[in-house]
């Protein structure tokens, strides 16, 4: 049955202010007569417009796709008398024109206020514009239909349902890949205490709270920053029974049952003795223990009883591009559809490619910090996203002032604020002179390491020779510095940078931003970052081990398909494989260089 077909009990729909106050939503009885094929089978482009609108209307893309068709298969309410594009499989003699209604509200009634021109005078452009309007109107109608009929809408519920409850009682669905790692840790027959590390506000506390809620009968959470008095629990001896007793007195109602209780030690960097106690909690083994902290690499270098061998570390990042797509309504099936082009190394459908590039530019601007993504999903307001991001940057500066020691405070802050200027240079190798004239590594190297340990930046080290193993060929004195979240890098720029990126209008600096986002994506996929430079004449943005091959990656903001540097790397420097990432579509240069869209980096 074609979407919008006549039903025995037509649903009354409210007006759609988004489409103008003088437009009344049509009832289902005013459906096109062509009912032979579902639109979504006619053109996959419908699926991609559905994904975009699903995040606006708050429903699943699979429910929207049937009414959002491509420009070549429009099966929605065009004006009466206008020939409908025939769906694939529709019989040649099947009527494609809706009969003219005779009611006073008919668009063909000369007295109607909603009169439209006769179909013979409609140009192709007018029809296309009207069809676009009606596609979006249909999406609005289906949204309200599902609000009135939740059972029907439930069939299209999102597959990924981590819930983030906001202050207004609503929910923003987030799915994080790290949940699967937590589940794998829980199922181990013998396990160490888990140490969850990562920068501030990447969602560590939230994900552990949800994990405990779904997988444990009892959950005890201690946050040493919110309640500083809880630090006293670990001032005594490290006997586990004594620790449990002190927790029960400090937090009445806490339940400890072997195998059924998760103990969460949050912001553990504020309680060094709790970090020491992890050894004894692991040896005891009765209770599962997770500890998290934002500055673990900074606060515990001088702890004499560091629990070596008793903890398992997991680093949590901000949302990667795939997680961002989930958050805005692009489901896993659609992502795997894109991956099919990557695996087969074939050209991506143009409509899908253009939409993916729009999503990619959104991700550059918004980044992956959960509060920024949540703000975008709920409001679609880039200014609110920017406010969230600059609040996070202010928190980072506060952390520097709070935790950095002595003169390191000013030096770490100066290094942090220099990052946009470092990336603007033609040679992006980090220069201490950009931080302070005539300064060197002796003065600022420790400050940069502080930023790395705090989870704020990534290092990309230069290789003396681009051959495996890379770590053995890295030069620690030459490196580039990238922000771990590109959205925060954009927030460090002046107002208006967001708009320039979304409109693809940014100038020379666009190359630096794209290089940062690719470095961020590679790091989140588990790659250590390296680059190669020789005599200022040859530079390769990244080198990674990919399928056990030394693979060079070149990042370009344009669709230029020339690859002179890449060819030189392969012919003269022992690199086995090359990947050129650009705004263009899939392709190849010779037999050993693949050309890919920038967003395909999520699959590397």
Automatic annotation (TrEMBL):
Pfam families: AAA_14 (PF13173), DUF4143 (PF13635). Residues 191-325 form the AAA domain. Residues 95-109 have a biased composition (Low complexity). Transmembrane segments: none annotated. Coiled coil: none annotated. Residues 82-119 are annotated as: Disordered. Residues 397-558 form the DUF4143 domain. This is DUF4143 domain-containing protein. It comes from Bifidobacterium jacchi. The lineage of its organism: Bacteria, Bacillati, Actinomycetota, Actinomycetes, Bifidobacteriales.
